[in-house]
Structures are given as structure tokens and as C-alpha cells.
Specification:
about 190 residues; 2 helices; disordered N terminus
């Protein structure tokens, strides 16, 4: 704060102030106020400095904790790096498995197609077997009929042969009897 002193001023107005105190007294009172304030500031500063010394071990512990945390973070980073490597290997394995599964799906689809073809073939074989069974039954019936007919024909021929043999025997008996009669007549 700057004071401007007017040299031309007369000293009387400063001496007779309305509250009855002189200018000098008032200035000194102000200085006393400033001194009291500086004392308060000095007390506060001393108090803060004493606190700063009290907090030094706290700050040292905090700094040590921060440094330890940094070391731990380095360990964590190292472990995370290891995990990332393992995850990368797992991702590669999973990609390989996906490829294998895709190949298996293709193989299964091909097998399904083959099975469908086999089912069609089996259906065709069943149809042929059914037709063969029908043919077999027809052939069996025909053979049975032919057997009956053959048996009938054989029996018929045997009957004719027997009849012919019987006739021939009868004719032989008759011939032998005639020969005997003729021999007896000649004798």
C-alpha cells in the first residue's frame, strides 16, 4: 500500500481527526494488527511444519507400498503375459477342434448320404427277395403240380405195364397150357 504524502498539506488536519486519535496512533495500531496477524501465520506455519515431520513416516510407508505395488504389478503383468500365451495356445487348439468338427460334420453328412443309398439298395433287395419268394412259391406249386402229374403219369404207365405184364403172363399161361395140351395130345 503506497502512501502519497502531499508536502503542501498542513499537519493540522491529521492531528485533529474526528474520533480523537492521532494519525500516528492509528498507523501504529494498524502495524500492531499486522504483527498479530503475522504471529498467527507464524504459529500456523510452525504447526504445519510439525505436522509435515509427523507425516514423513506415513509418506515413507506409502512410497514403499507404492513401490511394492509396482513390483506386484510387474508380477501380475508377467502372469497375465503367461496367461495370454496359454489362452493363445487354447485358441489355436479350439480353432483346430473347430476344423476337426467341421470335417466330422462333412464325414457324417457323407455317411448319411451313403446310409440313404444303402437303405435304397436294401429296399431294392427286399423287393427282389419278395419277388423271388413269390417266384419260389409259384415254382414250388408248379413242381408240386408237376410231381403230382408225373406221379399220376408214372402210375398210369406202371398200371399199363402191369396190365401188359399180366396180360403177357396170362398169355404165357395160356400158351403153356396149350403147349401142355398139345404135348399131351401128341404124346
Amino acid at each position: 500500500m503506497g502512501l502519497i504524502i502531499n508536502r503542501e498539506m498542513n499537519e493540522e488536519p491529521t492531528k485533529n481527526l474526528p474520533n480523537g486519535t492521532s494519525f500516528e496512533e492509528r498507523v501504529f495500531a494498524r502495524f500492531d494488527t499486522f504483527d498479530a496477524r503475522f504471529d498467527t501465520v507464524d504459529a500456523r506455519l510452525e504447526k504445519l511444519e510439525s505436522r509435515a515431520y509427523d507425516t514423513k513416516p506415513i509418506w515413507e510407508r506409502a512410497l514403499k507400498a507404492i513401490m511394492d505395488m509396482g513390483l506386484e504389478m510387474d508380477e501380475v503383468k508377467s502372469k497375465v503375459g503367461g496367461i495370454e500365451g496359454k489362452v493363445s495356445v487354447i485358441e489355436t487348439d479350439v480353432a483346430g477342434l473347430k476344423t476337426d468338427v467341421a470335417g466330422l460334420k462333412t464325414d457324417v453328412t457323407a455317411m448319411k448320404t451313403d446310409v440313404a443309398g444303402l437303405k435304397t439298395d436294401v429296399g431294392g433287395v427286399k423287393t427282389h427277395v419278395a419277388a423271388m419268394k413269390t417266384d419260389y412259391v409259384g415254382i414250388k406249386n408248379e413242381l408240386t403240380d408237376m410231381k403230382r402229374e408225373l406221379k399220376h403219369q408214372v402210375n398210369k404207365r406202371l398200371d399199363l405195364i402191369l396190365e401188359f405184364l399180366l396180360e403177357g403172363r396170362n398169355d404165357l399161361r395160356d400158351a403153356e397150357e396149350r403147349i401142355k395140351q398139345l404135348e399131351t395130345k401128341l404124346a
